[in-house]
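Lab notebook: predicted structure, single chain.

Context: the supervisor wants predicted structures on file for every construct in the current expression panel, including those that have not yet been purified. This is the next one on the list. No modifications to the sequence; it matches the entry in the shared construct table.
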Amino acid sequence: MKVAKRKWAGVVTAALVAVLAAPASATTLIRASLDHLTDGNGTVVVGEVVDAYSYWNEDGTFILTDVRVAVNERLKGKLDDGELTVTIMGGTVGDLTTLIVGGAELIPEHSYVLFLDEEDLPGARGVRTVRDHCQGVFEVEIAEDGLRAVSQANGHPLLPDASGAFDAPGGAEGFPLEAMIETIRERADVHRR
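Prediction complete. Output recorded below exactly as produced.
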């Protein structure tokens, strides 16, 4: 009987050691192409972040942030006016910050191409969000050849998609903004027909 108890204790100890020794994992994302992002989201806009407000969800278990975006161009979907609110996971309330590794980062006074859809988040049902996390956000940057849209997924490890590609769409250089806008509009028009 003592031998069985020792074996059981040894198994439990080994299991605990294995669990404690397992590496903490970050968000794992499969690469999403520009076509996939366009097809999989109900709204795509180019806009500038006006402000952001972080708060505890209804249950008081998770921090969410509402980001107000002034829309410069609607590329897909319907909007009631020239402004929308995007809710993302994470943020800072008081001295506590919740960071979502691989999550979307939206900073006031910065412009983005945003791929948005309605989803349920912890304690918030049916909100407009960046469901593809960092892959659904392209920062609009000034380059020597004009404005470019660069994916926030650059530098984040992505698992290969079905075609074997694993770099963020547009790569480190991003897309020329006008060419990206045209590609998204064409793709959205094809699926609207």
